[in-house]
Amino acid sequence: MENFKLTMKEAVLLEVLRSNGVSNKELIDNLESHSWEDLYSNEYQTLLNVYVQNKPQFKELLENGYSVKFITINGLKNLLKMKFEKIEDQDYKINNHTIELLELNPQQLSTLRQLLSINWVVEEYEREALDPASSIVKIYPIVVFQ
Q: Domain locations in the chain?
């Protein structure tokens, strides 16, 4: 079964909530009760619309993950920061729209592969990671913009 696809905005909203400690159950409860309407206004409405239109799929994506429809380099940097706490120039380098020397554990790598839209390629380096169970990866767009 193919992953549910979110827009970049929807993914960011979801990951902001998660990074603020909101559990899947709490998210569903608040979406059901509309209790965030005043707090998140238009942003909340975006997630609420996705939830209302796709309740079973939304609940499944919380448990099993999702893909993003289209990701730019800046969107990818934001997702790496929110989802994996990876920061440019600290945890990886960017060279010509390519993310290099990013170390991820197997779960993070699996999640990243699932999350990325089809315009990105993930390659594992031969270089050894600091943690033997981790991989060093390079992420680059299928088409490089000049």
A: 4-67, 86-141
Model confidence pLDDT, tens digit, residues 85-134: 999 999 999 998 999 999 999 999 999 999 898 889 999 886 665 677 78
* Backbone phi and psi for residue 96, each to the nearest 5 degrees, phi listed first: 50, 55
**How far apart are alpha carbons 51 and 32 in whole angstroms?**
9
C-alpha pair distances (Å), 128 with each of 56, 88, 99, 116, 132: 41, 20, 17, 24, 7
Q: Are 57 and 1 in contact (CB under 8 A)?
A: no
Q: What is the DSSP letter of 31?
A: H
pLDDT in tens, 7-42: 988 898 888 888 888 899 988 888 888 766 555 556
Mapped onto helix, strand or coil, the DSSP state of residue 19 is helix
SS3 readout for 116-129: CCCCEEEEECCCCC
